[in-house]
């Protein structure tokens, strides 16, 4: 083996070592991304809901309130949280408005703000994630999560229009399973 062949061979080994180190670093970084703690994005409160944008949804036969989502407020964040304005109306006509989020990965919900009669928002005092209850009566969060927002512990679709089409047509994810 002559001197130029040895030089070329050494240069090849050096290049191979450099590439191997780069791939190893990339490989480690991919795993590091998986271990990063979940971080919630900053939330912007939406405009107050308007009657023409409300999408009523079924909760249960024993529900004591009626529920709707403001379609204009629906969003899917890069943090995997589906955010929306929820309107609940009691049988006596009392109306509650709240801006909320559902985290499919952990099956939790959070109230960000409460809507006032003048259209203003007031930040919720209890700004914590809570488990979604699968009760029988007013199970509005469970209905939204299982029927429209979440599939196998992840967001059904990051395409808001796809979720809105389902809600408008009342085509639930549970209906898909029954087919």
Automatic annotation (TrEMBL):
Keywords associated with the record: Lipoprotein, Signal
Taxonomy, superkingdom: Bacteria
Domain (CNP1-like uncharacterised): residue spans on this chain: 33-168
Region forming the signal peptide: 1-24
Protein name, per record: Lipoprotein
Source organism of this protein record: Oxalicibacterium solurbis
């Amino acid at each position: 083996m002559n001197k130029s062949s040895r030089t070329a061979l050494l240069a090849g080994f050096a290049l191979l070592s450099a590439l191997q180190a780069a791939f190893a670093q990339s490989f480690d970084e991919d795993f590091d991304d998986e271990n990063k703690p979940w971080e919630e994005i900053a939330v912007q409160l939406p405009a107050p809901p308007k009657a023409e944008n409300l999408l009523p949804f079924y909760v249960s036969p024993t529900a004591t309130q009626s529920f709707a989502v403001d379609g204009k407020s629906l969003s899917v964040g890069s943090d995997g949280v589906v955010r929306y304005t929820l309107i609940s109306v009691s049988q006596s006509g009392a109306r509650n408005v709240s801006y909320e989020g559902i985290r499919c990965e952990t099956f939790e919900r959070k109230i960000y703000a409460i809507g006032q009669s003048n259209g203003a928002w007031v930040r919720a005092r209890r700004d914590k994630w809570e488990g979604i209850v699968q009760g029988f009566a007013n199970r509005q969060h469970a209905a939204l999560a299982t029927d429209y927002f979440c599939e196998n512990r992840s967001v059904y679709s990051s395409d808001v229009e796809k979720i809105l089409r389902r809600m408008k047509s009342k085509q639930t994810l549970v209906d898909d399973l029954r087919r």
